[in-house]
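Reply to thread "Modeling small-molecule complexes from scratch"

Following up on the discussion above, here's a worked example others can learn from. I took a protein sequence and the SMILES for NAP and predicted the complex. Inputs first:
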Amino acid sequence: MQIGIAGLGRMGAAIAARLMETGHTVAVWNRSPEKAKPLVEAGAKQCATPEDLAEQSEVIITILTDADAIDHVYNGEHGMLSGDVADKLFIEMSTVRPEIPIALAKVVRASGARFVECPVGGTTGPARQGKLFGFMGADEGDAALARPILDQLCRRLEYVGPVGNGALAKFTINMPLMIYYQALGEALSMARAMNLDPERLMDIMADTSGAPTMMKARAPTVAKMLKGEDPPVTFDLSGCIKDLQSMQAEAKARGLTLPLVQMTLACMEEAASKGLGGKEAAMHSVYWSRK
Ligand SMILES: NC(=O)c1ccc[n+]([C@@H]2O[C@H](COP(=O)([O-])OP(=O)(O)OC[C@H]3O[C@@H](n4cnc5c(N)ncnc54)[C@H](OP(=O)(O)O)[C@@H]3O)[C@@H](O)[C@H]2O)c1
């Protein structure tokens, strides 16, 4: 199938590589064109504008930073909806508030195209291996069209109802994880006085009832951070802050009270103010453990 990917950040690049591996013809576009180089060398076609990308693709996947980026790529000058997109399928995978895909779905459908949102759990490794957890919000007919492609990206794909519910599901699963980074930092600050080797300490932490699944894979990386290493970034602290701010805004609009979200956000903003915004998210726990 002709698949276009707009947004070759950490996730978009991994998704593009995965879809090429599964046999699709992949075209790509990114705001900073140089990021396409490894994919082009592997056989992807680079497009000059989002409009060109949409024109050349049957299915177009977007995974971008935030609402502004989505607006730029879909509705901006030479945006994806500038040309004739009738009958094409757009799959939007960014983590944003539900109102964003709900509004986008209306514009896309008005252009005669189909729209599915599918934000994901899991980071770059699972994206590259097709082992994400997808939360699909769509009309049932559009969901059925998107499923065969998303099944190649996801180890588990949950259809959660109409567009907007995918975004809500993503907030629901991300919230405890974001709060866990703060909880881990506080726990590690308590552990400091024992002077245990970081690898042993993280191995213990990962083997307890309080550890999220994430720790099974990430505990050794946190141990390295505790030893002063600065590992490659898969999801950065700024992304956590963006997600927590979005959750807080969503909660306010729904009359919900989320005190732990509020406190975690304040603690992460403090860490970002010390220059950690671009670092791996778990670096927040390490920062807090040393306070
Ligand atoms: N990383 C993860 O583990 C993970 C997991 C699940 C979900 N997510 C979500 O997936 C999305 C992407 O995450 P990521 O980690 O891949 O982010 P990233 O590496 O920072 O990439 C962000 C992408 O958005 C593009 N972009 C930003 N602003 C733009 C604008 N105004 N116009 C056009 N393009 C713009 C960037 O283009 P440039 O290259 O030109 O900057 C880049 O392609 C986010 O919503 C994130 O919350 C991430």
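What I'd highlight from this example: Residues 179 and 264 are 6 Å apart (CA to CA). Residues 7-12, 30-32, 35, 63-65, 68-69, 72-73, 94-95, 120, 123-124, 234-235, 239 surround NAP (CB under 6 Å). Questions welcome below.
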